[in-house]
């Protein structure tokens, strides 16, 4: 029982949420929460978009070059051409170190690893070339070892040797090498779970490692798209903490004091180095703010070795030794969209640390981005269904643009990186989804309106009004219309039969009017209005209809046939239930003429309707159907255009109540098949004879024609016998009361 109550309560709550909030809003909110979850997990595509955004900031405003005590001794293509092919003998590097120190360099770091013995060392040449004479080989062995000479040069100055990993960062956590410890301190929790790990390390020759003042790791991990955006300040190699090459050079140059790693629960917070705190990301990396490649940083190794370097060029400088030679393939893709030698990236990192121009990605950035994305998406979800679409889209685009500009301003003014791309993407996706949902909802509503409105007017009118709202205004146009009026004869008696069952009367009338509506709408008509049991419709508005007279006549015949079928079905139903059946008989009037058609009424309420004398005449013709005993009466203008397609029999020349001009009226008895039959041709001929005799006051001939006509015509429509009886009554009256001299055969109707 408790479970049932809980389930019922949950069902009620879900229904309340559904109807109060809406399915589209719920789906949109779910998609936003899914997007936030994706952002928290930060898959590679999200990273790439974010990084490309930050790249764009740097491309718009790269760091401007300034004079810093940082220089690069460059093994460039001219140096290789002049000094000799690579690799050079270690004596050249010893000379390079000595000359750098003599030129005033504070410290030198190698973006090169000397992992193997120098094959150009004299002793190595003697060992590798047994074909040389014994005396020559002994003489070579007696010469100093190149690696020893380089180690001695390292010992004479402050030199940082470079180390690298043969595997990418974040590799196996198993320590595979024994790495000497560099003095350091940890201020906070253990950083090991967070920082980059290099389990395999390529070191220099032991003699070089022993005499070097420092050891720095120059391995740099690219982002998933191959661009080098971040550089490690501190890493783990073989389970030991080491600084990157550039930070280690700065540490050695400033006295070689131990470095300290400051940590918190989120990872590394920064590295205390050379008396300053270098803020880092949680993994111990930083984002250099790069200038475009700058030749002013470089000194050609050949110029230094051959004493062509300007005096004082290296005085007080931190020197990095690396290569930009094309064949040595040390170029890296950078956020600026340019390739840059790896050694220049190290140099720029030094400049950033010295000038405090590292790009900052604060810890609160992710939270800010998530909150901003959720807030703007939630506002869009709430406001889209209730706010003007243009204003909402405009304000959203303005807000998102402001967000993007604000993020750039933070970068430009404070070097702070806050990602606008995720929020912008979420905002645009949300407004697109909500707009699409609104569009689908409006389409559904339009379909519902068309379905409902289509019960009263033609689909053409519904489409015209929905496609062009300008049509929904007061006013009209002049058009040739064919109008149809239909009414139920004796409706009062039918209604009285349902006195005890009003719902039954409603059901019957809906059933009846549905038949009339289908007949009209299927032939392109517009239902103007229902007036109780009466219907007014017209053709050729709002859309053009080339054969509107024919369409109206066809609809009238279909209406009569469907009502006859309805009466048959109702009679069977009444017999089955033992009830009294009262058939429905309709009268229809059709007329064609020029009318004013359009939206008529007040500013608050108007109808699409037709006005004009042809409208009144059509209504009068419907009323005369009772008098003439036929179901469908057609005016002369309609007959002129439709007589080739239908069996139309002239009834009279009549002046309806309220009009001066007489109208020739016709009974619509059938379609083209009836018209083409020999029986109808005979009826037409006798009917014409009767009317000619009548209008020429030849009463005997007229009566004789009536006697011939009645059995033939009533076969087409039994109700016409009433029409013929009235003609006989009229002839009898005219015999007794001779008509005036100006009598024209027109019958003046005294009722509507």
Descriptive report:
The protein is of the alpha/beta class and 752 residues long. It contains 25 helices and 26 strands. The strands form 6 sheets. Strands 18, 19, 20, 21, 22, 23, 24, 25 and 26 form a 9-stranded mixed sheet that branches. A 6-stranded parallel sheet has the order 6-3-2-15-1-14, sandwiched between helices. It has a 4-stranded mixed sheet with strand order 4-10-11-12, with helices on one face. Strand 21 and strand 22 (606-611) form a beta hairpin. It starts with a helix and ends with a strand.
Task: Describe, in short, the structure shown.
By secondary structure, this protein is α/β, with parallel strands linked by helices. Helix content is 48%, strand content 19%. The radius of gyration is 51 Å and the shape is rod-shaped.
Main sheet characteristics: 9 strands, mixed
Strand content: 15-25%
Report low-confidence residues grouped into runs of 5 or more: 13-20, 168-176
Oligomer: single chain
Radius of gyration: 51 Å
Q: Summarize model confidence as the mean pLDDT.
A: 85
Judged by helices, strands and strand pairing, the structural class is alpha/beta
């Amino acid at each position: 029982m408790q479970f049932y109550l809980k389930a019922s309560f949950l069902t009620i709550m879900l229904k309340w949420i559904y109807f109060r909030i809406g399915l589209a809003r719920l789906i949109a909110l779910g998609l936003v929460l899914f997007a936030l979850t994706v952002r928290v997990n930060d898959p590679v595509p999200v990273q790439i978009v974010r990084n490309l955004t930050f790249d764009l900031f740097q491309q718009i405003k790269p760091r401007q070059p300034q004079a810093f005590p940082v220089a690069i001794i460059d093994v460039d293509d001219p140096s290789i051409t002049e000094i000799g092919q690579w690799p050079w003998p270690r004596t050249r590097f010893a000379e390079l170190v000595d000359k750098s120190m003599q030129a005033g360099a504070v410290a030198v770091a190698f973006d090169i690893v000397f992992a193997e013995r120098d094959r150009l060392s004299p002793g190595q040449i003697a060992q590798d070339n047994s074909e040389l004479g014994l005396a020559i080989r002994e003489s070579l062995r007696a010469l100093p070892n190149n690696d020893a000479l380089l180690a001695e040069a390292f010992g004479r100055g402050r030199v940082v040797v470079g180390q690298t990993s043969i595997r990418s960062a974040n590799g196996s956590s198993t320590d595979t090498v024994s790495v000497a410890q560099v003095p350091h301190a940890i201020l906070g929790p253990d950083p090991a779970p967070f920082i980059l790990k290099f389990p395999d390390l390529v070191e220099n020759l032991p003699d070089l490692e022993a005499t070097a003042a420092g050891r720095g790791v120059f391995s740099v991990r690219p982002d998933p798209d191959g661009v080098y955006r971040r550089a490690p300040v501190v890493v783990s190699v073989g389970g030991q903490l080491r600084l990157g090459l550039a930070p280690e050079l700065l540490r050695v140059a400033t006295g070689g004091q131990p470095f300290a790693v400051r940590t918190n629960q989120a990872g590394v917070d920064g590295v205390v180095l050379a008396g300053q705190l270098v803020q880092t990301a949680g993994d111990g990396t930083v984002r250099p703010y790069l200038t475009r490649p700058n030749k002013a940083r470089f000194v050609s190794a050949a110029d230094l070795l051959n004493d062509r370097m300007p005096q004082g060029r290296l005085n007080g400088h931190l020197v990095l030794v690396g290569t930009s030679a094309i064949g040595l393939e040390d170029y890296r893709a950078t956020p600026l969209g340019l390739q840059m030698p790896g050694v220049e990236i190290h140099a720029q990192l030094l400049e950033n640390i010295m000038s405090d121009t590292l790009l900052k990605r604060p810890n609160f950035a992710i939270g800010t981005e998530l909150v901003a994305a959720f807030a703007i998406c939630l506002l869009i979800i709430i406001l889209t269904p209730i706010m003007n679409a243009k204003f909402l889209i405009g304000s959203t685009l303005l807000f998102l643009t402001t967000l993007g500009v604000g993020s750039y301003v933070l970068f430009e003014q404070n070097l702070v990186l806050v990602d606008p791309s995720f929020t912008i993407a979420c905002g645009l996706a949300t407004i697109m989804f909500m707009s699409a949902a609104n569009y689908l909802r409006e389409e559904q509503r339009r379909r519902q309106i068309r379905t409902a409105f289509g019960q009263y007017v033609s689909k053409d009118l519904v489409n015209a009004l929905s496609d062009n709202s300008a049509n929904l205004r007061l006013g009209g146009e002049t058009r040739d219309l064919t109008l149809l009026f239909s009414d139920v004869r004796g409706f009062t008696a039918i209604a009285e039969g349902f006195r005890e069952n009003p719902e039954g009367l409603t059901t019957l009338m809906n059933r009846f009017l549905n038949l009339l509506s289908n007949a009209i709408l299927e032939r392109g008509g517009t239902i103007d209005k229902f007036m109780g049991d009466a219907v007014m419709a017209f053709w050729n508005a709002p859309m053009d209809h080339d054969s509107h007279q024919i369409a109206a006549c066809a609809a009238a015949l279909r209406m009569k046939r469907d009502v006859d079928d309805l009466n048959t079905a109702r009679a069977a139903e009444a017999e089955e239930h033992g009830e009294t059946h009262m058939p429905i008989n309709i009268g229809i009037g059709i007329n064609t003429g020029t009318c004013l058609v359009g939206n008529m009424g007040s500013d608050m309420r108007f109808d699409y309707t037709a006005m004009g004398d042809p409208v009144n005449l059509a209504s009068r013709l419907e009323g005369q159907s009772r008098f003439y005993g036929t179901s469908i009466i057609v005016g002369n203008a309609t007959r002129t255009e439709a007589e080739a397609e239908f069996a139309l029999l002239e009834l009279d020349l009549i002046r309806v109540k309220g009009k001066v001009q007489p109208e020739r009226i016709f009974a619509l008895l059938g379609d083209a098949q009836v018209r083409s039959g020999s029986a109808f041709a005979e009826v037409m001929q006798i009917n014409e004879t009767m009317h000619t005799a009548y209008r020429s006051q030849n009463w005997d001939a007229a009566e004789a024609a009536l006697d011939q006509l009645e059995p033939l015509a009533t076969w087409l429509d039994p109700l016409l016998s009433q029409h013929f009886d009235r003609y006989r009554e009229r002839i009898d009256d005219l015999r007794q009361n001779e008509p005036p001299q100006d009598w024209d055969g027109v019958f003046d109707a005294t009722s509507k």
